[in-house]
Amino acid sequence: MKNTNTNTKLILLHPYIQKQGSSNRLWLLAFISILTLAFLVTLIYTRESTFTSTATSTVIASSSTPISGLGNSPLPATVINTLLHYASKSNDTYHMPYSDLKPISDVLRKCSSPCNFLIFGLTPETLLWKALNHNGRTVFIDENRYYAAYYEEKHPEIDAYDVQYTTKRSEMKELIVSTKEQVANECRPVQNLLFSNCKLGLNDLPNHVYEVEWDVILVDGPRGDWPDAPGRMSAIFTAGVLARSKKSGNPKTHVFLHDFSGEVQKVCGSEFLCSENLLEGNDNLGHYVLERMDESSVQYCKNQSSTGSGISSST
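Structure tokens predicted for Polysaccharide biosynthesis domain-containing protein:
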């Protein structure tokens, strides 16, 4: 019998060929998986970044939106009354009583925002004044450079500067006479004291202090309890000039003199802030309201001689 299988060819698949095909498919699958993973990571990162940016913008926008009693809104009456109550109950020997705090607080509350408040003296009420004028600008002037630096370090929100007084309380009469004799020159009631050589004018304050249109000024310093103490003559005179020299804003400036029963406060208040401007006064606090004056003015008070060399009879 003829063998029909003689020409039959046996084809064998080499194992290498099968392995190579499987390997290619695995590499392709791995490559696709890596691309998919990279795409997912990129998508997730992009969404998280967008969410974070949106959330941050929302927080910033929310923080800039006034909240009741905060932001640009005035302090609620209950907060003001609470601050005044606890300040007046302070254990500090030299703290102001409620009857002195209230008139100043009332003026600050009615002051147009932002209110510019200048205070001569760092006192137990320093933080109170800053809080009551929270929407405005509050600046403190003190004769003790170390205390001013200490206060700013302890309370960074406080804006305090030191000034070197060259006056002596015992020289008050001579200084007043000299100032009134120079009323048409160095000691004019309307001027930029930065360029003045008036003996009672403070000309070494930071430049911007002379540029601010002050709405309220409180003179509660420097010290003046002994003959060689600087006294408050320069502070009172400077307050009067700053008030009369305003170029814009509210033409009126409220000037408060604390310890109003003191001789320096009584005399210099009468000479440079003027009795016709005294709104009210008691033993502790004098409240003056001064108006902007013309640059050509050569007298401090309406009923005062421009070359007067005398001093008020109360001296």
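Residues 16-58 form one domain.
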